[in-house]
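Service request form, structural biology core

Requester: graduate student, group of Dr. S.
Request type: structure prediction, single chain
Budget code: on file
Notes: please return the result as structure tokens.

Sequence provided:
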Amino acid sequence: MMRFWRAGLILLVGLALGVASTALAPRVAGPYLAEVLRGKLEIVEGVVTQKQRHQNRLLLTVVTPQGAVLATFKHRVVEVDQLVDQRDVLTLAVRRFEPFIDDPAIRRVQKQVQADGPPGSEVPPPAGARPKPKGSQ
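Core staff response, request fulfilled:
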């Protein structure tokens, strides 16, 4: 009788570990794995139309050619909040296109130049870009 109880307990512990590792392993080990092992990622690019900051999360509404996406950031909220503004073009890497995405990987942020902003608020040209000659448009 004691053997069956032990075997059942081992089986339940193994089952629980298997389910937990399947659910948690991609989040924990994903950043450290090569992209080949993580699976194919889809690149989604769109314009940030809304940005809402709550206590411990940041919500970004991104309008893409495929449709609108609500990206929720729960990790690195302060950094993403400082990096991304409304009207920026945001490039995200996601497993598949969905309307609700939690903590997507940000691949690129293109800042929009504000023509009516205060002097000096324009985004500087990328390094290596040649300046325009004076008098040319």
